[in-house]
Write a structure and sequence with these properties.
This protein has seven helices and no strands. It has 251 residues and is mostly helical.
């Protein structure tokens, strides 16, 4: 009778009766087979790591010597201009109210805004250690005389003074805003960080400019151009303002 050899599949259980050595190997073999079977039938679901691109912080470039000089000059002349504006309204108010008491609330409103502007620039000069103009005493006398003199000429002349002054001051502030916005665009284009103080200064200048132009519009509504000799008065006051700005920027 022919004997047929049958191949047996080796399993961990078939080692159980082989002796101590095989008893020792059974647990290890069973664990190894389990790991192989699990690895061959279970696909990996762990996502491959995605490289992270870190963006470094923007560089903050300090202001150049020229930029610093511009700010010193601008803040100094702004403070001098707001001093003059408050003194003009202070000197105009008593003569005007004697003959036009209905203007009390308007004069108080404009003076209050100018006093707020003056306080803003006083604080900025103190924070950045910028000296005021040496022409301070001269502008004090000149602004007081201008306010009192135009008020004595009548309501229309007082408003003509406001129109002329605010035309120059509004344009002056607008020029400063354009310069600062140009700095911001240049910094952003180079990937540099724009200091928060620069942005805040732009917003303050815009607000003050808009209030000055509001005074201009009010003066025109109050018949500033009906003042006797308005073209000459307007030309003289605007020329004086430009001269005072030029001097205050430098000394």
């Amino acid at each position: 009778m022919k004997t047929i050899a049958v191949s047996r599949r080796w399993t961990p259980q078939s080692f159980a009766h082989r002796g101590p050595l095989f008893d020792f190997l059974v647990p290890a073999l069973a664990f190894h087979r389990k790991r192989i079977r699990h690895a061959s039938t279970t696909p990996s679901t762990r996502p491959s790591p995605t490289p992270q691109l870190s963006e470094g912080p923007k560089r903050r470039k300090p202001l150049s010597k020229e930029q610093r000089a511009f700010l010193d000059s601008a803040l100094r002349v702004n403070q001098a201009g707001e001093l003059a504006a408050t003194l003009i309204y202070t000197a105009q108010t008593p003569p005007l109210l004697r003959s036009h008491p209905h203007l009390r609330s308007l004069m108080q409103h404009m003076h209050s805004q100018e006093a707020g502007h003056f306080s803003t620039f006083n604080a900025l000069l103190a924070r950045h250690r910028i000296r005021p103009t040496v022409m301070y005493p001269v502008w004090t006398v000149a602004a007081t005389a201008l306010g009192w003199g135009t008020a004595m000429l009548g309501r229309e002349a007082a408003m003509a003074c406001t129109e002329a002054v605010e035309t120059e001051i509004g344009g002056h502030y607008n020029g400063q805003v354009r310069v600062l916005l140009g700095w911001i665009r240049e910094m952003e284009g180079k990937g540099e960080e724009v200091g928060e103080e620069v942005r805040e200064l732009v917003e303050k200048l815009k607000k003050i400019r808009d209030e000055e132009l509001e005074h201009l519009d009010t003066a025109v509504e109050e018949d500033s151009r009906d003042a006797k000799g308005w073209p000459v008065l307007n030309t003289i006051i605007r020329g004086g303002c430009r001269g005072a700005i030029w001097v205050s920027e430098r000394v």
